[in-house]
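Office hours follow-up: a student asked to see two folded examples consecutively, so here they are.
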Amino acid sequence: MPRYFIHMAYNGSRYHGYQIQPHSESVQETLEQCLSLKLGQPVSITGCGRTDTGVHARNYYAHFDIEEAIADPEALANQMNAFLPEDIVIYRIWQVAPELHARFDAVSRTYHYYITRTKNPFHINDAYFLYGDLDIAKMQQAADMLFEYEDFTSFSKVHTQVKTNNCKIMEARWMEQDGLLVFRIKADRFLRNMVRAIVGTLLEIGKGRMTLEEFRAVIEHKDRCEAGTSVPAHALFLEEVEYSQVVSPSGNGADYTCIQRRREGLMNRRLSDAAADNKKEAPPSPEGETY
């Protein structure tokens, strides 16, 4: 049975997350209704992960199986874009190996959380307005502690249906981007509400309400009640999803997976340069991705 990948993005403001929810509008349900209509048969779509209510995705991958091969996947993508609401866009649809899985074959996910330090009417729906001073240097010190641990129960919603709360953190750092304060975190997997809980707790460090020692204790006690309040969902974006193999063939259209890897390499170099500058200068001014 042919399998197809979808590369897409969505603004999650009016959706109750990606995954289908009873009596609530979701991205998955909207996609499946559109694709089933265009293909003339019921189609089930498997996403690369679930995002919570109000969370956005700049790059999201999903797959679906169908009885017969699609004659023109590019035309199907265009047809779906004409039918889908304006807050969902399909970048590309293409055939992949039958065993390739959008969720289980993803080796990493990267989230960004955006904070604006000044009131800005143009960032109402995509950044968290936070007033007051922050000690960003200490916030980064606390973020660096995340690499020492694997069990992040303290930053997960309780009573979730997962076998383990272990995650491998690959990147966790604060940076400035387009006038916003951004927390970038990359891991092999994320727990429900994990990124927002981590950011909320790091902000407690920045405000001087929690010490670095207390932050470490929060992680080690594995108690969600000890961590900070989760920050609002509207400022969280799933930025990148990486696979161990190139899933998008070159040729008809851009190779989106390779583009993502090049972008990530460039971002890492920029972040390394910024980290080196921070060691030479004062901490950066505050002016300026589950779940």
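And the second, which I mentioned at the end of office hours:
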Amino acid sequence: MKLVLLVFIMVLLLLAPSADAATCELKYGNCGGAESTLFSLYNWTNAHAAESGTLNYNWSVCCDNTATIFSSDCYVNTSNGCALGEGDILSLFSTTNAHAEVNNTLGYSNKVCCNPPGLWDDFYCYYNTTGNCATSETAVVSMYNYTNSHLGNLSAYNNILCCKTKDETPPTAIVTYPPVVPSTSISFDVTCTDTGGSGGCNKTIINTTYGNCTVLGAGGTCTIAFPPSSCIYNLNTVFDVNATDLAGNSNYTANYGSFDVKLADLCDCCTPPAECFSSCIECICSSSGDKPFVGFDTDNNQIIELGKTEKIYVKIKNPTPTKKSVPLYIGSFDAVKNWMWFESHKYDTRRNITVTIDAYAEKIVVINVIGGKTGDYSITIGPDSDYANRYDEINIRIVSKKDSGFFSSTPGLGVISLLFIIMAGAFLR
């Protein structure tokens, strides 16, 4: 007796749908009032399918339309496609006595279509060979094969027709940014919201004429750096925003917003356009606390006659309201580095000094250079010995005879010049 009871319980378990597919089941007769009738089967297993209500097809595929993705409006569409917004459940070879297949396999033209409730954008169904749908999916029927197939209840075959929601709603991105920025960079703050049910935002891309930046997920900040060492001036610079979610939906907005790029600190503000991001002080854009401007005076002659000492001038401008201490270092990759020194520092620090300059003041620093050997040379001025940190660079030419044009030859050192360089070197060391 106990053995018979155990067998009976096991049979009931086999006939029952799996736990993650409890909202759909195969019933003999009609579905209940709160259920959707998707279609009908001739038997509970190894069965042909037909449109619901077909004579002698007494088994109904019933799904709870209050708890699943289905509505009460399900039917067989014979025009080879469901209407826009409807979900394709399954395809039948004919409206009765039919084999079935997963949609768009061989092209069975009779589609079982359902109108989704307003909560969902859409849904789709697929062929699952694991025997169980995911907990967020709805198991409809089991299938012998993915095409030309007989059908049965959820325990008849190992392959399950699983249906799940389909997100077709693009995300929404809100981007905030400063309306006026200096010609160095701009930063954007992004908040992305996705209501389509796909699991959230994927990324938001902001594109400008100066490049683009990306914020991942629901939000964050990204920065676009403008070209280095440039003084850009551009009004009404537009940018685009493209947000995507994890389902692949995209929300692209051309010309989402615009911003003004003004001249950054240390840019020339006396030559139009002259609008600084901060303020224009003695022809230099600057805000309080910025570094002074340091550069060679290229208006002077950079041609040095062999054996003579010439002066090269460095301009320093302090456009800030505070006194500044400015470290200076002159260097070169050429031999000329041994033939130059700051004025009044020939016998001490020679190539590195610190200059103090008052607020809003301008100062000239003098560098002496000996014409040691004919040729072209490069001299840099910077805060330290790191060539990459230089403020400015200048090219000089040492000629055998001073003139205003290019020299035609570059002879080596003569005897007199050689003696002069040896003596000068002894003093410089």
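Two things to take away from it. The longest strand covers residues 250-262. The CA atoms of residues 40 and 53 lie 7 Å apart.
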